[in-house]
Specification:
Elements lengths: L8 H23 L7 H6 L6 H28 L6 H23 L6 H7 L2 H34 L3 H18 L2 H30 L2 H10 L18 H18 L1 H8 L4 H33 L16 H9 L6 H33 L10 H28 L1 H13 L1 H13 L5 H24 L63 H6 L6 H20 L13 H6 L27 H6 L4 H4 L4 H9 L1 E4 L12 E5 L5 E3 L10
Antiparallel strand pairs: 1-2, 2-3
Helix pairs in contact: 1-7, 1-8, 1-14, 3-8, 3-12, 3-14, 4-10, 4-12, 5-6, 6-7, 6-14, 6-15, 6-16, 6-18, 7-14, 7-15, 8-12, 8-14, 9-12, 10-17, 10-20, 14-15, 16-18, 17-18, 17-20, 18-20
């Protein structure tokens, strides 16, 4: 699968130009665009990103570069079962809109894990969640950076080290010069390029296969299109059931609990805009997600009678799409370079976006609370976040180099990435919708969820799972004219490890022709059956275990000290609280005691004014009095809050006591 170097001059030229164009986005954002004067400008893009750009950025962050290569090869060699994960993605959007966003947006937080600290009054819970996110994203980004390097090395001969250093170096430039806005602009440019390339591949494939109807019929006839398999066996790799349930919980964890997505929500200027953007994104993600599968259909239709893998022209599943571009677009100089640049920039844009979020989380949750950094001004905070981003970029670069050297570590890292979604989602569900949940239950739930899921995950690595039949491949139609003349066979089929780029979190095969595992649980002993559970259920199991353990521990350890502001749980949960097990929920703003039945007079504000807080409320306007009666007034900036622009919410309880939404301390007692 190689050309003469002299014939690839245009490909190299286009590749370099496109990479430089992406780098210019960061330069433009820094020197020609609006200046980033504050941390808020860097972290939240100052709320100046359009809805359309945000939609495409969220969609790009959802799919990723591995999907661009992985979905076509998934359909070619394994069929369309994985496409049905779309059901879970689509269902996740409205749930995030109406359950997660209303609570997040009203708090004005910088790190989404800061919410857990506010809800549970525990830095332990906050650090457990944010630490999970940081470790998972570092490992995941190491794989993301390395993924396009395989294709770049195979197709146009760029060494692995050069690709890794290139992606990491440009990411550092983006991190220093840009910010969230630069990351979103890179996402938009990269997303549009991938769409254009996908459409070009579909058109070329349909022309060669005889039209889209023929493409569909060939794929259907050969078993590539197989939907609505409701098999409940948890050991089958992918079914409609596991795709729906597993991806729903995975997507809720990604869209609702990951900093890189919540950071985008909070960068918008209104909650209504966030909801509108996410709901509009449903058709966008449906089209973009399906586009890669249509690409797989046309590639299969073209090669249905002569599989390049079986015939020895490629070594791995995920080389099928680069092979198609090199084989069928040879008449267009530079198109292969554009395709490779798209892979390079795809990894780049995701790396930039995640570096921004990782640095923000690390600073807010681990660095800023240090006593020696108290009183740090906004400018120093901004440069601290950028410095942390550079450190993370170097760590990711090191992980990427390790991926190319240590095969055992890689599979483990990808398994960890898959296994951590459930516990992370579980602790947020406890915080949002389970009123009785406290920090003891949340901590116990997260820890137990991680232990059990990681035990199942790594246990699965030790199980000898007997293979089953894979989808058939055909080479009966191969001839000297099947592929372009400049395409060469590989000298031998190497079985050395390379990371998969399929959407599977960890399905890695040493032999590219190894059949799929569809072993059924009834043929296995109980422990082997447990280890054989498909990875599609890991997020679901992790979430359920975390919630059940956390809820149980909270039920038996609840105390008066667990009181928190009622605004920190979803309004629906407050209304349904009486139906939950345990004592009736009490909040700092609504204490139940012997005086609760006393009717409050219409002169509540005057009564407060005569208390020890009279100096604060004596000059209140009529609007302030109305706010006091309703239980809420506004105060100025609190140094404990993440940004100068944010305001502290003051609650007035049924005793007439002022209670802080941030530190939950009762300031006065009548």
């Amino acid at each position: 699968m190689s050309k003469d170097t002299s014939s690839m001059i245009w490909d190299y030229l286009v590749f370099v130009i496109f990479v430089l164009a992406s780098t210019f986005v960061a330069v433009y954002s820094r020197f020609f665009g609006p200046k980033e004067k504050t941390k808020a400008d860097y972290v939240f893009a100052a709320g100046k990103v359009s809805t359309a750009a945000m939609m495409l950025s969220i969609a790009r962050g959802t799919l990723g570069v591995r999907s661009f290569l992985g979905y076509p090869s998934e359909l070619f060699y394994r069929g369309s079962a994985m496409w049905e994960t779309l059901y879970g993605m689509v269902l996740a959007y409205p749930i995030v809109c109406f359950v997660f966003v209303p609570v997040y947006f009203s708090l004005g937080i910088t790190s989404v894990y800061q919410y857990l600290d506010m809800r549970f009054k525990s830095r332990l819970v906050r650090c457990l969640a944010s630490g999970t996110y940081v470790v998972r994203q570092l490992l995941n980004q190491g794989v993301t950076v390395y993924t396009p390097c395989v294709a770049l090395n195979t197709v146009i001969g760029i060494p692995y080290w050069a690709s890794i250093v290139g992606i990491s170096g440009v990411s550092i430039i983006f991190n220093i010069l840009g910010g969230l806005k630069a990351a979103i602009l890179a996402d938009v440019m990269q997303g549009l390029t991938m769409i254009a390339i996908s459409v070009a591949i579909i058109i070329q494939g349909c022309v060669e296969a005889g039209g889209f109807v023929d493409v569909f019929n060939i794929s259907k006839k050969d078993g590539r299109l197989d939907f609505f398999n409701w098999d409940l066996d948890p050991t089958v790799r992918v079914t409609t059931t596991s795709a729906l349930i597993g991806q729903l919980f995975m997507s809720l964890s990604i869209f609702g609990c990951q900093q890189n997505f919540v950071q985008r929500y909070c960068s918008m200027d209104s909650q209504k805009k966030v909801t509108r953007t996410l709901m509009y994104n449903i058709p966008v993600i449906t089209v973009l997600f399906s586009l890669s599968w249509v690409v797989g259909m046309v590639v299969y239709a073209v090669y249905s009678s002569c599989d390049p893998l079986t015939s020895g022209y490629i070594k791995k599943y995920d080389e099928i799409l680069p092979f198609f571009v090199e084989d069928r677009f040879s008449y267009l100089p530079g198109i292969l370079g554009l395709f490779m640049a798209s892979l390079f920039n795809g990894a780049l844009s995701l790396n930039v976006s995640n570096l921004n979020s990782l640095a923000t989380v690390a600073f807010e949750d681990f660095v800023r609370p240090l006593p020696c950094l108290k009183g740090m001004n906004d400018s120093r905070q901004l440069w601290s976040i950028k410095f942390i981003g550079v450190v993370f970029a170097l760590i990711i670069m090191g992980i990427s180099f390790g991926i190319g050297l240590l095969e055992g570590v890689i599979e483990s890292s990808m398994l960890v990435t898959s296994a951590t979604s459930g516990p992370l989602l579980g602790v947020f569900i406890m915080a949002l919708v389970i009123p009785v949940a406290n920090w003891k239950g949340a901590s116990a739930g997260v820890i137990m969820g991680h232990i059990i899921i990681l035990w199942i995950t790594f246990g699965g690595l030790t199980v000898d799972k007997p293979p089953a039949k894979s989808l058939p491949l055909n080479i009966d139609g191969c001839s000297n004219s099947s592929f372009n003349d400049h395409i060469l066979k590989v000298e031998h089929r190497a079985l050395s490890w390379t990371p998969t780029t399929t959407p599977s979190p960890f399905t890695i095969y040493n032999d590219p022709l190894a059949p799929l595992n569809t072993t059924r649980a009834e043929k296995l002993d109980p422990l082997t059956a447990l280890y054989s559970i498909t990875y599609m259920y890991y997020s679901f199991l992790g979430c359920i275990i975390t919630v059940l353990v956390g809820w149980t521990v909270s039920y038996f350890t609840a105390s008066e000290s667990d009181l928190y502001d009622e605004e920190l749980i979803h309004p629906w949960a407050r209304k349904m609280a009486d139906y939950f097990p345990g004592k009736k929920r009490q909040y700092v703003s609504k204490r139940e005691d012997s005086t609760r039945k006393m009717k409050r007079s219409g002169s509540t504000a005057a009564n407060l004014a005569t208390s020890s807080n009279s100096s604060q409320l004596a000059n209140s306007t009529k609007q302030d009095e109305d706010n006091v009666k309703s239980g809420t007034v506004n105060a100025g900036y609190s140094p404990d809050m993440p940004m100068e622009e944010e305001r502290l919410s003051i609650k007035v309880d049924t005793h007439g006591a002022i209670v802080s939404n941030n530190n939950y301390l009762k300031l006065t007692e009548l």
